[in-house]
Amino acid sequence: MNENSLDPSQPCREPTREELTRRLFLGKISLGLAGVGAAIVTLPVIGFIFAPLFRREPGVWRTVGAAGDFKIGETSAVVFLDASPLPWAGMTAKTAAWLRRTSDQEFIAFAINCSHLGCPVRWQPSARLFMCPCHGGVYYEDGSVAAGPPPSPLARYPVRVQGGKVQIQTRPIEIQRA
Ligand code: FES
């Protein structure tokens, strides 16, 4: 039996100064590695949770057609590129809005996404209501909630007419988070 093996009949000996120093060093290395591991795991999670608080998407004006294409009093669907399309987004970089011409130079643009969980709402001209197919949300023609689970009116985009073109300012739309 060598001197390092455990022999129950032998009394415990005190660790040498050199052994204590080595243990202390290895303990510090282990703590450091554990800290690095914890940081690798937790930092992306913290970043994911808090990033939306600091992200400020710039508003971008998108042309959706000539003003003359829209009749006063009518509500039509328009499709446009979102505020910050990613190069690989393809079709998903497109979004839509319900655009209503209210006078010669005035338009209202409603977000197409329901304020409940984001399903695309449909305009029903005969009922003059926006209907959500997902959970039965209903909005009046001014976008305010008429029935169902939506917690808030349909969001609106700023609209302007420039050089005879109708432009919508795109930005991320707030929807309720379940
Ligand atoms: S997503 Fe429209 S009512 Fe739920």
Topology:
Layout: H1 17-54, E1 60-66, E2 75-81, E3 94-101, E4 107-111, E5 122-124, E6 129-131, E7 138-140, E8 145-147, E9 156-157, E10 159-162, E11 165-170
Antiparallel strand pairs: 1-11, 2-3, 3-4, 4-9, 5-6, 6-7, 7-8, 10-11
The protein binds FE2/S2 (inorganic) cluster.
FE2/S2 (inorganic) cluster binds at residues 114, 116-117, 119, 132, 134-135, 137, 148-150.
How would you characterize the overall build of this protein?
This protein has 178 residues and is of the alpha+beta class. It has one helix at 17-54; strands spanning 60-66, 75-81, 94-101, 107-111, 122-124, 129-131, 138-140, 145-147, 156-157, 159-162, 165-170. A four-stranded antiparallel beta sheet has the order 2-3-4-9, with no helix packed on it. The longest helix has 38 residues, at 17-54. The structure holds FE2/S2 (inorganic) cluster. FE2/S2 (inorganic) cluster binds at residues 114, 116-117, 119, 132, 134-135, 137, 148-150.
Determine the structural class based on helices, strands and strand pairing: alpha+beta
Helix coverage percent: 10-25%
CATH architecture of the largest domain: 3-layer Sandwich
Main sheet makeup? 4 strands, antiparallel
Structurally, how many domains make up the residues?
A: 2
Short description:
The protein has 178 residues and is of the alpha+beta class. It has 1 helix and 11 strands; from the N terminus they run αβββββββββββ.
